[in-house]
Amino acid sequence: MTLDLARYIRPGDGIVFGQATGEPLTLTEALVQQRAALSGSSIFFGSGFSRTFQPAHADHLRFSGIGGVGTLRKLATSGVLDPVPCHISSVAGLIRDGTIRCDVAMVLVSPSNDAGEHSFGVINDYVRAAIASAREVIAEVNEQVPWTPCDHPLRREEITAMISTNRPVVELLAAPFGDTERAIAKNLQDVIPDRATLQVGIGGVPEAIIAMLGDRRDLGIHSGMVGDSVVDLMERGVVTNAYKGIDPGVTVTGSLIGTERLYRFADRNPAFRLCPSSYTHASSTIASVKQLVSLNSALEVDLTGQVNAEAIGSDYFGAVGGQVDFVRGASLSEGGVSIVALAATGKNGESKIVASLSGPVTTPRSDVDIVATEYGIARLRGRTIRERIRALAAIAAPQHRDVLIAQARETWGTC
């Protein structure tokens, strides 16, 4: 069954749908196919991992989003995705006040329970805000979407139109990791103690770090997203969520970004709760979490500690996302630390510890705590510029260190 979207979407409407694995594929595919009748409509993206949208679709659709995460990179590098630099914690508010226009919300949900309520399944970050703001709410009820506990399931009376499907949910395989990522993880092994609460993202470094945590006890999870590797820790009893300070016994996240294994594990599992980003990323919430270890990545870090996680020049490879929310939140958490982890060099051997960023400042140096590469860790919180330069040059690749120090002397007159 395919809906005639022109019954619900007017040319020029703003459309918001679940990001990442929460994309309602049947609806978005119909949107692409019917786009000529909906010309001028604008779509706001979070992250994307399907291949539904292509640069050619900009003939009738307008694209904006928080960055070039996943398959959205193709839209970004083609110049048809207009980036919106914003924190994940801000997205719901931007939707509510109309800055991000949402006339139509498209949502992927599970089959209903006995009360006629639908779970948001795999994504519940800013979906509720979109529903509250939309003129029309179109739901794709997919038999393969898990029922995950959440505070405010979708009620039938909130839905304008509904389509029933039975197809696989978008999946994202865990990122592979090698010797470099293992070396970074090894350098961080003493930074993640028993009873710590983890916030993790996507990538080889987070996967390598999670893989080394099998000997930890009573870890917790409070994160914007989780992947399949969290299942390993929960099944082995490493994650108990017993000492988080809030939400005892429950893994809290806004997004399940993984494979069928994760979705089935989370299905009707009371040890999970899918929460909106207004909760997961709120500073007041994160401040209540004990021993939060926030782990994020970067494209490059300059010698004073400024972090670029978004773009090299005008080419968008990432996004602001939840990095700043959790970096700042970790500083408020009792015993919390934040980590920015990256390989010391890029694919072509270029240093990713740099004298000057080639893109925007995602996280300011005043917020950065620990930077880690395969050559060690640099603790920057409360350090002077001179101390930062020395610490960061020391964890750069050896062949780049002398040049970095020389550039530091030239730029800042100090090292």
Structure description:
- Keywords: Hydrolase, Transferase.
- This protein has 415 residues and is of the alpha/beta class.
- It folds into two domains: 5-165, Glutaconate Coenzyme A-transferase (3-Layer(aba) Sandwich); 179-412, Glutaconate Coenzyme A-transferase, CATH 3.40.1080.20.
- The chain has helices spanning 25-33, 72-77, 88-96, 127-133, 179-187, 204-211, 228-235, 260-266, 277-280, 283-287, 323-332, 385-394, 398-412, and strands at 14-17, 42-45, 62-65, 81-83, 104-109, 117-118, 136-142, 154-155, 161-165, 197-199, 220-223, 251-253, 272-274, 292-297, 300-302, 307-308, 311-312, 315-316, 337-341, 353-354, 370-373, 376-379.
- Strands 13-12-11-10-14-19-21-22 form an eight-stranded mixed β-sheet, with helices on both faces.
- Strand 11 (220-223), helix 7 and strand 12 form a beta-alpha-beta unit.
- It is globular, with a radius of gyration of 21 Å.
- The chain starts with 13 loop residues before the first strand and ends with a helix.
In short:
The protein is of the alpha/beta class and 415 residues long.
List its traits.
415 residues; alpha/beta; Glutaconate Coenzyme A-transferase; 2 domains; 8-stranded mixed β-sheet; 7-stranded parallel β-sheet; 13 helices; 19% strand; globular
